[in-house]
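Input.
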Amino acid sequence: MASNTTTVADQNGEYNDWIELYNNTASIISTSGLYLTDKIDTLYKWAMPTVSIAPNSYLIIWADKDTLQDGIHANFKLSSLGDQVILVYADSTIIDSVTFGAQVSDVSLSRSPNGTGGFTVIPTTFSANNTALNVLDLHNLSTFNVFPNPATKRFFIQSNFNETITIQINSIDGKLMSKFSNYPSNHWIEVDAEDYSAGLYFLTLSSQNKTQTKKVIIQ
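Output.
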C-alpha cells in the first residue's frame, strides 16, 4: 500500500506505506541476508533485520524511513504516483518484485490467489489471506461493494448479483455521470472520477431480478 491514510496505523499510531511478505511454504523462512529496495539500480538499499516468518504467515514492513521506531521500518518510502518494490537475495537474485502506477489512497495491490497469483486490486487485507474466496465472503455482506468511500479520483465497484448487471452513476441533482451495461458480476470495475465534482453521488446496480442503490462521496 503506497498511500495509507486511514487503513491501519503502525506501532506509533502513524499511517505509513507498508509492504507485506507472505511465506507460502511449509517451513520457517528467515529474512537474514535479504534486501528490500524501490530502485532496480540500488538492490541493496535496505538490509532486512533477521526475522523468522512461520509457515503460511505474514510479515509487515513499514516503508516510511523511520528506522529508529519500534517495529520493522524500511529506509525508503513508496510513491503514490508510481514506484516499485523488489525483494532480493544477497547475491542480487531477485525473489519477487512489483512495479505499479499511480495508486488510490487506502487501496492496496495484492497477489490473488494468495501469494501465488498476479498483483490485482481487491479489498485490502492486512497480514491476512488475499484469496478470491475471502473477497467473495466480504461481499456476501451486501449486494455490491464500493471502495474507497469517500473517494477522490477513482473508485471501484463489485457486485454479488450472480448475473450480468448494469451500473448507473448519478449526481445528487440527477445528472447521469456514467453507465456500464451488461457487465459480468463478481468482477471489479474501476470508475474514473477525475471529472466528478466533490459531493454525493448515487450508484445503482440492476439486473433482471433486483436493483440496489448506494451512495458514494467524492472529495
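The mean pLDDT is 84.
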